[in-house]
Amino acid sequence: MTKSKDTNLEKTRELISEQGMKDLLTKQLEIVGSGGAFVWAIFFLCVTPNILNGFHVSSYTLLGHLPDDQWCGIDDLRATNWTLEQKRSITNRDLNSGGCTVWDWDYKQLSRMSYDEASNYTHRMSQINQPAEVSCKVKGNYEYLNPESTFVADWELTCDRSIQRTSAQVSISLGKFCGSFSFGILADKFGRKTSFTLGAAFFIVGSIMCSFSPWYSLFLIGRFALGAASSGLFYPAFTMIVENICLKHRSWMSIAFSASYPVGMILLAITGYLIQPWRYLQLALTIPSLLLILNCYLMNESPRWLITKQRYDRVYQILFKQPSHYEVQSAIAPATEIVSDKKTLEPVNDSLCKKLRNGPLKSIIELFTNPKVRKLIFTSYFMFCVTSLSYYVTALNAANLSVSRYLYIIATGVVDIPSYLVPVIMLRFTGRRITTMFLFVWTGISLLLVLAVPSGSTTWIVSFAMLGRFGISATYSVVTLYTAELYPTEIRNSALGTCSTWAHVGSISAPYVVDVLGALGWYIPTTICGCCVLVAGLLTLTLPETGTGKLVDKIGDSSVAAGEQNEKAEKH
Questions:
Q1: Whole-angstrom distance, CA of residue 470 vs CA of residue 425
Q2: pTM surpassing 0.90?
């Protein structure tokens, strides 16, 4: 009976042209994308993973902080009845090395004396002949206050190895750098859900490696995997919202998507305050990542991407909740050409270069072959790089304040949340281009105002820096939405992915701007960011407005749309 039903279904399928099928599916996507279960399912399945990004990408502040106190434990003095303060007064008197070095005394001889005798002896001898200053590892080992709260103590990443502590954060940035590029290509080639699922797998495996790693090198590999996974979760999910949600909901949902990141930061700070040991904290952050398995199971592939890949039956089933009763009628002319043209039937002699151009690198090459798209992509690269640089520079400058790291993370999240919500109102009334330009100018002026404040006025300096952070956080969310709408469906993820790559160039550069240039002048980092952000604001004026029309699928349509909008703007 089942076979006969299937046969009858095949016979009763209606013929429809390919363009007619596209129009039917696109119209239905606009209907279901305007509200209802379809919209909310996409929203929640895409937003919840971004909270996890807030967990792990910011966890370095709690997992790898410098110990609250550090000193050198001398082996020869362990058997004495001296207090810790007495030992440190002998080994580190008048030294400001943070426990990295000690005086080269004969501590075995000193251990036979009382503390008062040893103190008088070292004071008298130092006036006659000052002893050499040697590394702590020569005489003993590093000791820390609350060593279980940071991985620095586990692997002794202090003093001459302190640069290796920074590599834990650099590995995250490098992972995001590689992930944004590769996952963007994968999402355009194999689908949004496929890229998201691979990112989820990287995220879970990387989290487990960080939780149980006995070696620092393996821990860094796990951090790299988390960085790559964050791009694999963020960009395909964000693209799903942009592609399938109507213009009415797209603005506020994309902003809410970005605002979920600081929510993760706030939850991280609360969890870190309750769970002090770093391995237990890492494990507590790993457990929620297992929910990504459920996300991957419930998530459907992006209907708009499926349309561009001519997988119409699958799109029909997603949108109409039933199998398609249409049969797409293929055009005859192209089929005749394929049969009659022998060259098309013999692609064996194609060069490797041509195969790459028509294969995995096709979407990347198309970003630069069209003059109008090329202009858009270079402007987008600069905007993303400057935005990321300014965001992380303000974050690193604020971290130098003498405040609780838990309160600092919460404060950063609290500042970031309204910075994502304010653009929702602005986008409704002023459009994408004007909003982006205004926020860039706001950020630039706020950061440059730091120059007008005396160096001793810490409160005012931090206030202006936080105003700049507020502005750049708001800019980040708008720039991501604006960029996603600038490009057609067939290269959208590649554009977002490569833009993210340039954003991570900015995030990797930020520590060097703060540490190297900041040593020359405390105002230099904010001044550089302020000037670059103002330039980005001016470049925004060369871009077309995207908030007044529907998304395009093909590059040719994108170029025409951009050209028409610019011509209209010039006439008015």
A1: 16
A2: no
